[in-house]
Amino acid sequence: MSGGHINELLDIWTATLVADGAEPPFKSCKDLYSKIDSTPNLNCPWEIIQMRYDGTKPEHDVPSWMTTEYTVWYRNPCMLVENILSNRGFNHEFDCAPFQEYDMDGNHRFQNFMSGNWCWFQAEKIAEIPNARGSMFVPIILGSDKTTVSVGTGDNGYWPLYLSIGNIHNNVRRAHRDGLVLVGFLTEPETDKKHSDDVKFRKFCRQLYHDSIAKILEPLKAGMTEPEVVLCPDGHYRRAIYGLGPYIADYPEQALLACVVQGWCAK
Fold first, then answer.
1. pLDDT tens digits, 129-182
2. Residue 33 is inside which H or E element, if any?
3. DSSP code for 94
4. How far is the C-alpha of 217 from the C-alpha of 158, rounded, in Å?
5. How far apart are the C-alpha atoms of 130 and 116, rounded to whole Å?
6. Residue ranges of E strands in the chain
7. d(Cα 64, Cα 9) in Å, to the nearest integer?
8. Whole-angstrom Cα distance, residue 180 to residue 162?
9. Residue 122 confidence class, pLDDT cut points 50, 70, 90
């Protein structure tokens, strides 16, 4: 809803309260927005990264994308993972170790993420690290979906980056239930039609995409080789090793991730 419509509804609300001498909870749309912005977020505040092009520039007719400063909003992924792991609502819907399940005919049965072969192989690699042996494997699942929001926002583009972990069961993740969280907002460079097909511009878009994700995930890097003690849904503390798992995206974003042109196979 637009700010003007919010103000209009608040005026109507105020008119209904005049007889009782009461006031509505918000004076205007700006007052409402400030209340929303002040909402606590589980000690995981939003931070920003400022990024810009640092390559060589032409002497004349410098494209706007070379001089623009791009802002990437993000939250600390370690804190978000710890919040998911410590959620007592996920008890009995959580796997602390990879497993393999077979039916009576010896067929491998797959259901939740930790039942897959990839998690099993990752656990074997963790067992080879002396200081990490016996640690719980926490696979990080990422996903993004660029979209345009036109209602009341003037066709603004949003590029949310989501995060989840493979330890919680699929039904929990699909129902959200705080098992899928927003970790950041990526940014997309824009330029005029003259420079939109420039090879340098396309390369910069790919680099900005990869560098943004790398910077957002940087806090997880230390926990990929050195175990971190975390609280789990069952109330027990365990040593955890993080690892980057699958990235869920549609084809255009798969092409960006794989650094291939449209029409090529991202795999």
1. 888 988 999 999 999 988 765 555 455 567 899 999 999 998 887 776 788 999
2. helix 29-37
3. B
4. 19
5. 24
6. 46-51, 70-75, 101-102, 108-109, 136-144, 147-149, 156-158, 160-165, 181-185, 228-231, 237-248
7. 40
8. 7
9. very high
Tokens of 127: 């067992």
- Distance, CA of 78 to CA of 42 (rounded, Å): 13
Shared-domain flag, residues 159 and 113 = yes
pLDDT tens by residue, 76-104 = 999 999 999 999 989 989 999 999 999 99
Domain hosting 120: range is: 46-258
CA-to-CA dists, residue 203 to 54, 67, 69, 144, 242, angstroms: 13, 16, 17, 20, 30
Record the tokens describing residue 202, joined without a space.
């396309």
Same domain? For 59 and 20 the reply is no
Identify which has the larger pLDDT, 33 or 177: 33
pLDDT band (50, 70, 90) for residue 61: confident
Number of domains present in the structure of the chain: 2
* Together in a domain, 215 and 137: yes
What would the two tokens of residue 74 be? 């993000």
Give the pairing of strands 237-248 and 136-144: parallel
- 53 and 9 assigned to the same domain: no
The one-letter amino acid at 80: L
Phi, psi angles (nearest 5°) of residue 185: -120, 115
Q: What is the pLDDT of residues 223-244, one digit of tens each?
A: 999 999 999 999 999 999 999 9
